[in-house]
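Suppose a colleague, Dr. K., hands you the sequence of a protein chain of 131 amino acids and asks what its three-dimensional shape might be. Before reaching for any lab equipment, you can write down a predicted structure in token form. Begin with the sequence itself:
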Amino acid sequence: MADTLTKRQRSYCMSRVKSKWTSLEREAHNFLKGNRICHKMHPLLAGNPDILIKPNIIVFIHGCFWHKCPKCYRRPKSNRIYWDSKIKMNARRDKIIRKALKKRGYSVLVLWEHNFKNNAYNSSLAINLST
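The predicted structure, expressed as tokens, is then:
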């Protein structure tokens, strides 16, 4: 399927996509702050994690499509060669980053976009933080 937007329109749309302080990150931040859990948003660590819960818990908030969620990822029907390669590389990079952070002594927690939509992140985050 061809793009329905002009190059200029597509460029504008893509310029609006944020990499920090997404709505999911704000929700997680408000939850942690509301429960008085000491944390730092967007710490300067390898892999650009979303949250560091002091002293050594790293939290990544992943979009289900972009990071190939095992539960709800759906393969695109158009431009499959491009998207298969792109998503595969994202998932591979995520795995390498998690492994490197674990080697450095961090506990790594991944929260998926669908956890927020189901409002299950409150309980999953609280359970994972208590262990």
